[in-house]
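Researcher: Here's my situation. A collaborator sent me these components and asked whether they could plausibly form a single complex. I don't have experimental data yet, so a predicted model of the whole assembly would be a useful starting point for our discussion.
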Amino acid sequence: MSEGKAEGRCFRLYSTLLAGALTLVFAAVLARIAQLQLHPSDELVEQMTPRVSSTKELSLRGDMTDRLGRLLSATRFSKRVVIDPTLVADLDKTINALAPAIGVSSDGLGQKLVWAMGENRRRTLLIEEAAKSGSGVAQAVEDEEVVEAPVAVNGVYPTSHDDGGDDGGAGPTLKKPIRYLVLSGMLDDEQVRAVRRVVSNRKLKIKGVSLESQALREFLGGDEVSEIVGLYGWQGVHKTGSEARKDKELQGQPGKVGYVRDAAGTPLWVEAGQIQRAVPGNDVRLSIDLEIQRIAIDELTRGVEECDAQGGRILVMDPNTGEVLAMADVFRPVSGLTPLPLISKLDAAKRGVIAAKKNELAGSRARFQLVKPDVDEHGKPRLPGLGRNRCVEDVYEPGSTFKPFVWSVITELGRARPDEIFDTEGGGPWITPTGKPIRDVRAAATMTWREVLINSSNIGMIKGSQRLSAREFHDAVSRFGFGKRTTIGLPGESKGVTTPLDKWTVFSHTSMAYGNEVAVTPLQMVRAFAAFARNGEMAGTMPRLRMTASAPGEPAGVVYRVLPEKVATLTREAMSHVALSMESKYAKVAPNGSPWKFAMFGKSGTSRPPAPPFGYLQHQYVPSFIAAAPFEDPMMVVLVVIDDPGPERIAKRTYYGAATAGPIVRKVMERALTYLGAKPSAATVAHVDTTQPME
Amino acid sequence: MFSKLALVILSGGLIGVSVLGLRHQRSQAQSELTQAQLRINRQDERLWLLRTRIAQRVTPRQIETLTAGLVDLHPIDPFAHAGLADAQRLAVVGGARGFVGPPPPEVKLPAAGAKATKVAMSNLPKSKVPGKRQPAKTHPPTKRVAQTPEKERR
């Protein structure tokens, strides 16, 4: 009995002891928990901060395509190497492994890293000093922008002095050590693979290096459309061309993803509601057709070469919708050109100086430079996307291509009938009311009003225009949109040069009858010419020009009537003979020897380049040709302007618009319409008198 | 008392381990989801890169360069093989433009529909008229296949 009691006491004692021990352990654990929660050590505080990071999801900028969906510019992501200099353990090993992988010199990479590590040491020292002195220095902050190593001078990087910056009297701002340093530009696939090999090589033990994705705008249309597409600079800082004009539509909204990571920085999971997806930008479909653009550039380049010209411009438009299908200008370097003379304001004010210079220029046989190469201030060629778009920015004198507009208005107002006989003075020389002698290229004693346009008679046009009042003539010029910018919205567009009504003189009246004293852009010219190239009720109306493709079934845009339908058709019919005449003399058959498939109507023109303030250059020309086809249902207006055909062409008298620009227009029209699958015309070459030269 | 205490401790331990296991599984699932999302992003980036590369290689200029030495390419002429009626219709359209030249042959063109087809077809050789029964010799006699009754097939 006593033994049993003793055992019971013993068991109770042990139990009490065990319970006490457990209570003590639990109490200790609780005390530790309380201590960790209420007063954790500094080391633990650093570890206890929530390991949540967020990453920016880059938005995809919309694509820019041509009218058939061929990519002209698109965004892709590319990699670059970034490093956290605070994690670099072995500097030499890191430099030697990374430099060949990213294709840079070890010296350059080394200097960058050494600078960053030196800068970090300096910043750490400053922070420690400030902490020791307890001078109330504000807490160190991170760099606001991405740190880039400064430019080395003689291989030595200058020391940063930004730590002493004054922030409004609140004391100097200390900066945290640099933890993000960009080491390379955009890498290609091979370089990315090489960097990955280096980073994943455990033997090398390279730390802190990572590959970062960056959006990169790729221009896939090439140089052919670079002026139209424009440029989109690094991270969208600089934009030009359509990239700038359509920026709002193209740009998307970046997203954000928040995730929990482990101590090593490896993403673990994404908490619910932490994903904010990026919204991609909208695509923009330009009206340009890459194939027509190629055809236009090919033929223009060939034509400019054949003419030994300084350059040329071409514009192709759909007259029904106002869409610009192709737009290009070509510069051809010609040796031995003389720069146009300049005159200071002081000299210009002196009496007789300009007149003397004008005489000097008239007597000079030098070939002056009319088209300047697109170079920057250092003489280096500009990036293609930053170049000048001469179809939009530069004007030219239209010459006889202006006659259809004057002719149609005179006809509309009933001042001349198409069959009315005009005395064309046997081709001249005929003295105009302003006392200027005028000649016709094609001499005839008389011509009907219709033949005045077909034969491009200057005398006939001047006599016809005398029947208009100054106001009527001025209104005629304005109604076709000359002297006003188009609504296309391309940057740098010129509004052209026309004489205002209050400055209108008798000289204006005679000069403008054959396209002098007026300067237009190729863009204005094709838009105005579209009035003749539209069918049915639309004939005589002008389209609203556009650089974006119209959707199927979309209305043709704002149009306004400039001519009655009948007059537009009448002018078009007369111009069909001009085109046939050009073909029979300068472009009888297609390059492959077959007859032309598409009948067209058009007008040629030749003017002299101006050299202000000295008047016009006497031995250089700017010929042009504008046409539309197919005749029965025009699908295309093409304008070609040639800048200064060579001396050989001038000597042979084949510098006119019909001889230089006409064949180019003809070939572009044929190739582009075939490509579009237009119905061929059943026209044959008309019986045109080709014994006489034509302008 | 001891056994009860041990049971309580063990139960507590088991519950703790289970909760931790569940938490670990949840973390693992979410981690895999995140990794999958990152893989999708990488694939997207790859896709965009390939897209731009393809676009670079299929510009009209590139295709012309590529095919220059291979074959003599000509544009497809949709009207090269047009029937006579189509050719005459085109001729009439062209002739109405007022050009000087030989007049197109006068053809009474049907308005549309069945009549037009008839005119067009009448100009073709009889054997090539689509829809007409061809002579038996041009087609080998078709072998008669015994039809399986519906019930049997089931």
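Model: Some features of this prediction you could bring to your collaborator: The two ends of chain B are 74 Å apart (CA to CA). Chain B touches chain A through 43 residues (CB under 8 Å).
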